[in-house]
Amino acid sequence: RLVLTFEPASTGQSMGPLVQILVALLVISISAFVYKKFTTTDTTSIDICEEEKGVSRKGKPKGRRKRKGAKPKPKTTHQAKPKSSTSAKGHVQKHHPCQKSSLAGHTKDVIQAKFSPDGRSIATVSEDGSARVWATGGDHPWLRIYDPLDDPCAVAFRPDGKQLALAMKRSRKIVFYSLRWSKKKDASGEHYPRGDKEENLSIETKHTDDIKSLLVTSGGMSITCTDGNDTSIRGHGRDGNRIFERNNKQMGNLMLAMSDDSKLVAAAARYGDPKVLQLVVKGSSIPQIVMRLCGHERGAASIAFGPGTKRTVTGSIDGMLRLFKTDVDYEGGGDAKLIYAKKSAFDRISLLQICPIGDLMAVSNEAHIHFHRVSTGELLYEINNAHKTDLVALDFSPDGKLLLSAGGPSVRLWSVESILRG
């Protein structure tokens, strides 16, 4: 401890040394203050500078320091654009090499999806309560059909492609829209589809369960079935009058399939063999059973007619594929003949479609699609995990160049040419 005392200077003595000590102490104090204030390392300032240069103290890239109270910006992930598609939420997903494009727009799972007879458009119905008609080409511009009082649950085109039929879930009615193409084009040059509801055309089916399958014949007759306790198959004319009702006496009609000439309809169900009905029978307004596709131990979940009704394939609940010869004289008593029965790679076959061109069929279960040769049942190609959820629809375009699949809220289009190249 330094104690300084001041005494009057005696005669002959000088205050020089004392003043020098005081000045030195003052200089040292001022120097220490200045050094601490202006030259001492400030870690915050360094961090800011380094962050602005994109380098943190730990050697990791960082952005600029955020202002207090500022809202954080959402993080973005940059991925390579080749072989990718953007979903409705903006997430980038990688393409399968055979996938051509994807239709994204529904906010909930798609229920059904079908190509139009000319292949120019695709119709979908979804659990979001809407139906859409998409252009197959370009960037797939679409028409949205929404009825706030009812939900569409099944869809079908009239064979000439000029009319769209929608089965409604709550009212169990069938409503119709006339379709056309607008002059308006999207950025890719594709026209927008347009539709007008036919207000005077509505059919009361009076089913007691939700409609599962809907067909429209070339003559304008609508054919429906459910997959519940109501096992009836019903046909209505354009005027809304019921033409026929036939009880299939099988619990749970899973789907209906129609031949390309609108003469035959086949019903697949959980129990029993599928039956083929002839729609127009002389002297009777009720379709008659003309063929039975026999040999199914656990029922058939799907069925498809080939071009010209020469061949018909069924997919069983036990995973069996069966090919039948159906170009027989059924009016003269001839019945379908089994060509082969082969076990597929699936424990169950949920969906099945035959390509209208060539010798190809698509078979699916859960989220997977397998491609087989129709004539032999040979497995040709596999697309596993085609969707994130189970598939609900498969359909080939009329020219055989595309296959659509629906699962979850999206519909995807696959190049058949790429699939055949394998």
Q: Which spans of ≥5 residues are poorly predicted at pLDDT below 50?
A: 1-13, 39-64, 71-93
Helix percent band? under 10%
How large is the share of residues in beta strands?
35-45%
Largest sheet: 4 strands, antiparallel
If helices are DSSP runs of H or I spanning 4 or more residues, what is the number of helices?
3
Radius of gyration, in Å, reads: 37 Å
Mean pLDDT: 83
Shape: elongated
In angstroms, what separates the terminal alpha carbons?
A: 94 Å
Physical arrangement of strands within the biggest beta sheet:
3-30-29-28
What structural class do you assign from the helix and strand content? mainly beta
Number of strands: 30
Question: Can you describe what's shown?
Answer:
There is one protein chain. The chain is mainly beta. 9% of the residues lie in helices and 43% in strands. The chain has helices at 16-38, 43-52, 416-421, and strands spanning 84-86, 92-94, 99-103, 110-115, 121-126, 130-135, 142-146, 152-157, 163-168, 173-185, 191-204, 211-216, 222-226, 232-236, 242-247, 253-258, 264-269, 275-278, 288-292, 300-305, 311-316, 320-325, 337-343, 351-354, 360-365, 368-373, 379-383, 391-396, 402-407, 410-415. The strands form 8 sheets. It has a 4-stranded antiparallel sheet. A hairpin with a 5-residue loop joins strand 24 (351-354) and strand 25. The chain is elongated. The model is unreliable at 1-13, 39-64 and 71-93 (pLDDT under 50).
